[in-house]
Amino acid sequence: MADRGCEPNVVTYSAIIDALCKDELVGEALELFSQMRNKGISADVITYTSLIHGVCKLGQKNQALALMNEMVEQNILPNVYTFNVLIDALCKDGMVSKAQNTFNVMIQRGVEPDVVTYNSLIDGLCISNQFKEALALLKEMVGSNISPDVFTFNILIDTLCKKGLVSNAQNIIKIMIQRGVEPDVVTYNSLMDGYCLCKQIDKARKVFDLMVTNEIVDILGYSILINGYCKCKIIDDAEELFDEMSHKGLVPNVATYHTLIKGMFQAGRPQNAKELFKDMCSHGQQPDIVTFSTMIDGLSMEKSQLKPNFMIYSSLINGMCKVGKINDAKELFCSLFEIGLQPDVCVYNAIMKGLCQQGLMDEAYKLFKDMEK
Fold it and tell me: Buried-most residue among 40, 132, 307, 355 (CB within 10 A)?
């Protein structure tokens, strides 16, 4: 650009810095920012906002605050978006008092907060168990003629439901509807989860049926109710709901499978649990460490009652190796000998493959020699 006699200006630099930050290349963005200032080009609100957003995404909140202070020192007034980015990041990181201080600075500098600002603060206060303060902020928000939206109400409803205060959550839903804000799938999922937490499974089912009628039920909704049925030991209804998902074109995720697998083991149906695990793997759902733990606990409980399925063990070992849990895989492999079982070739292949992937060639070769014996 410069070779053609056209010097980049603040707009040019800001555009590239913004693009770099969006690609999480924040180091490169900061380097370019430094080059820009060395050339005597003054940054503007867009430049600083992009950088603040970038460092916040990387979890560097203190650097974000430093950039904000530097911005103010340069007499560049942060706008509502700049403040919102920083307040939201601080709240998500549990730094609510710093977020509130930033909010106060925002007011002092004459920048009007919007619904996004209040939502971030209310969410932060709820996460840090300051529910009364969150309600006070809601009142302040309404007093400032800023209408709460569906996100505002959902934050409060979800918090109340997680505390088991479902009747209070219902009152918020009534206020929500009175203000012309329609409950959405998030609202109903939170309410259903609250009922399940309180073991009011019939009420949870009514919410679910309403969602089905309104055609807004999603995978999370199914998973919540399946979990509720499992906790209430109504395993047949949980299984029926799981089967219904595929008929409606919904693909169960890892959490859905894990919930039902755990429920099957607890209901004394280890064979069903193992079949679900195999179905999970065959449908491309990668089990996580929670699922692995559930399977190991379940298999340990049933080892004296049923002949172990070595395909399950090899799948577990293979999955653990894939997520870097090689020590857990080795421990599971060794546990087979401890309970008097001789692993088959599939189990040996799984553990040796995992050891090779981790560069533990000596251990893999030792197992190979043991296998030949």
Answer: 355
CA proximity to 191, closest of 175, 207, 215: 207
Q: Are residues 64 and 3 in the same domain?
A: yes
Reference 46, options 85, 73, 8, 7; nearest CA is: 85
For residue 325, give its domain range. Answer: 320-372
Side-chain half-sphere CA neighbours of 238 within 13 A? 29
> 149 lies in a domain?
no
Query: What crossing angle do the helices spanning 219-231 and 235-247 adopt, rounded to 10°?
Result: 170
Query: Environment class of residue 81 by beta-carbon count within 10 Å: exposed (0-12), middle (13-18) or buried (19+)?
Result: middle
Q: How many residues does the chain have?
A: 373
User: In the 8-state DSSP scheme, what is residue 250?
Assistant: P
Q: Give the chain's mean pLDDT.
A: 87
Instruction: Please check whether residue 131 lies inside any domain of the structure.
Output: no
- State the amino acid at position 238 in one-letter form: A
Per-residue pLDDT tens for 216-242? 999 999 999 999 999 999 999 999 999
Last residue of a domain, one of 58, 77, 96: 77
Element (H, E) at 129: none
> pTM here?
0.75
H or E element that contains 246: helix 235-247
Report which residue type is found at 47. T
Question: Residue 365 and residue 211: Cα distance in Å, rounded?
Answer: 56
Q: Evaluate whether residue 186 is within a structural domain.
A: no
Question: Given a cut of 80, is residue 310 above it in pLDDT?
Answer: no
Structure-token pair, residue 42: 């003054």
- The per-residue DSSP string of 29-48 comes to HHHHHHHHHHTTPPP-HHHH
50 plus 1 within the same structural domain: yes
Residue carrying structure tokens 């870097």: 324
Q: At what angle do helices 80-92 and 45-57 cross, to 10 degrees?
A: 10
Looking at residue 286, which CATH number applies to its domain?
A: 1.25.40.10
3-class state of residue 233 by DSSP: coil
Nearest to 209 by CA among 200, 221, 197: 221
Please give the tally of structural domains in the chain: 3
What DSSP state is assigned to residue 3? G
